[in-house]
Amino acid sequence: MAPETFLIGRANVETDVYAFGVLMLEVACGQKAGNQNEQNNIVYWLWDLYSRGRILEAVDFRMDGDIDEYDMTCVLMLGLFVNDEFTGLFPVMISKRTTL
Fold it and tell me: Domain Serine-threonine/tyrosine-protein kinase catalytic, which positions (predicted)?
Protein backbone atom coordinates (compact mmCIF):
# COMPACT_ATOMS: atom_id res chain seq x y z
CA MET A 1 0.00 0.00 0.00
CA ALA A 2 1.30 3.43 -0.89
CA PRO A 3 2.45 5.52 2.08
CA GLU A 4 0.20 8.41 1.00
CA THR A 5 -2.87 6.24 1.52
CA PHE A 6 -2.36 6.52 5.26
CA LEU A 7 -2.07 10.30 5.04
CA ILE A 8 -5.12 10.98 2.88
CA GLY A 9 -7.18 8.00 4.00
CA ARG A 10 -8.14 6.80 0.54
CA ALA A 11 -6.69 5.46 -2.68
CA ASN A 12 -6.23 7.59 -5.80
CA VAL A 13 -4.40 7.38 -9.12
CA GLU A 14 -1.02 7.96 -7.49
CA THR A 15 -1.50 5.25 -4.88
CA ASP A 16 -2.73 2.84 -7.57
CA VAL A 17 0.41 3.44 -9.66
CA TYR A 18 2.58 2.94 -6.58
CA ALA A 19 0.77 -0.32 -5.79
CA PHE A 20 1.17 -1.47 -9.41
CA GLY A 21 4.92 -0.85 -9.23
CA VAL A 22 5.23 -2.76 -5.97
CA LEU A 23 3.21 -5.64 -7.44
CA MET A 24 5.56 -5.76 -10.45
CA LEU A 25 8.54 -5.97 -8.11
CA GLU A 26 6.92 -8.66 -5.96
CA VAL A 27 6.19 -10.85 -8.99
CA ALA A 28 9.62 -10.41 -10.56
CA CYS A 29 11.48 -10.97 -7.30
CA GLY A 30 9.22 -13.58 -5.72
CA GLN A 31 9.15 -11.65 -2.45
CA LYS A 32 6.56 -9.73 -0.47
CA ALA A 33 6.86 -5.96 -0.33
CA GLY A 34 7.60 -5.74 3.38
CA ASN A 35 6.84 -2.84 5.69
CA GLN A 36 6.91 0.38 3.68
CA ASN A 37 8.13 2.31 6.73
CA GLU A 38 11.28 0.26 7.15
CA GLN A 39 14.40 -0.07 5.06
CA ASN A 40 13.90 -3.82 4.69
CA ASN A 41 11.17 -3.41 2.09
CA ILE A 42 11.48 -4.53 -1.52
CA VAL A 43 11.91 -1.03 -2.96
CA TYR A 44 14.85 -0.13 -0.69
CA TRP A 45 16.41 -3.54 -1.33
CA LEU A 46 16.17 -3.11 -5.10
CA TRP A 47 17.54 0.44 -5.00
CA ASP A 48 20.51 -0.94 -3.10
CA LEU A 49 21.09 -3.68 -5.70
CA TYR A 50 20.61 -1.19 -8.54
CA SER A 51 23.11 1.26 -7.04
CA ARG A 52 25.68 -1.56 -6.95
CA GLY A 53 24.95 -2.67 -10.53
CA ARG A 54 23.49 -5.97 -9.36
CA ILE A 55 19.74 -5.54 -9.94
CA LEU A 56 19.33 -8.90 -11.68
CA GLU A 57 20.29 -10.64 -8.43
CA ALA A 58 16.78 -9.76 -7.27
CA VAL A 59 15.09 -11.99 -9.86
CA ASP A 60 13.10 -14.87 -8.36
CA PHE A 61 15.37 -17.92 -8.29
CA ARG A 62 12.40 -20.08 -9.27
CA MET A 63 12.67 -18.65 -12.77
CA ASP A 64 15.79 -20.80 -12.97
CA GLY A 65 17.64 -18.35 -15.18
CA ASP A 66 14.98 -18.68 -17.90
CA ILE A 67 14.67 -14.91 -18.45
CA ASP A 68 15.70 -12.32 -20.96
CA GLU A 69 18.06 -10.14 -18.93
CA TYR A 70 17.22 -6.97 -20.83
CA ASP A 71 13.46 -7.47 -20.43
CA MET A 72 13.78 -8.31 -16.73
CA THR A 73 15.96 -5.26 -16.16
CA CYS A 74 13.24 -3.16 -17.81
CA VAL A 75 10.56 -4.70 -15.56
CA LEU A 76 12.59 -4.05 -12.42
CA MET A 77 13.51 -0.52 -13.49
CA LEU A 78 9.89 0.31 -14.30
CA GLY A 79 8.83 -0.98 -10.88
CA LEU A 80 11.46 1.24 -9.28
CA PHE A 81 10.59 4.23 -11.49
CA VAL A 82 6.98 4.37 -10.34
CA ASN A 83 8.15 4.07 -6.73
CA ASP A 84 11.04 6.53 -6.93
CA GLU A 85 10.45 8.54 -3.79
CA PHE A 86 13.90 7.94 -2.38
CA THR A 87 16.12 9.92 -4.71
CA GLY A 88 14.09 13.11 -4.84
CA LEU A 89 13.37 12.38 -8.50
CA PHE A 90 9.84 11.13 -7.86
CA PRO A 91 8.33 11.62 -11.32
CA VAL A 92 5.08 13.49 -11.75
CA MET A 93 2.03 11.33 -12.38
CA ILE A 94 1.65 12.37 -16.02
CA SER A 95 5.18 11.14 -16.66
CA LYS A 96 4.44 7.84 -14.90
CA ARG A 97 1.23 7.30 -16.87
CA THR A 98 3.05 7.98 -20.13
CA THR A 99 5.75 5.49 -19.23
CA LEU A 100 3.27 2.81 -18.20
Answer: 1-43
Question: Which domains can be identified in the chain, with CATH numbers?
Answer: 3-85 (1.10.510.10)
DSSP the chain: --HHHHHHSS--HHHHHHHHHHHHHHHHHTS----TTSTTSHHHHHHHHHHTT-GGGGS-GGGTT-S-HHHHHHHHHHHHHTT--SSS----HHHHHHH-
> Could you report the per-residue pLDDT of 41-78, keeping only the tens digit for each?
888 888 889 999 999 999 998 988 788 999 999 999 98
Euclidean distance between CA atoms 12 and 54, whole angstroms:
33
Q: How far is the C-alpha of 17 from the C-alpha of 24, rounded, in Å?
A: 11
- 64 backbone dihedrals φ, ψ, rounded to 5°: 50, 35
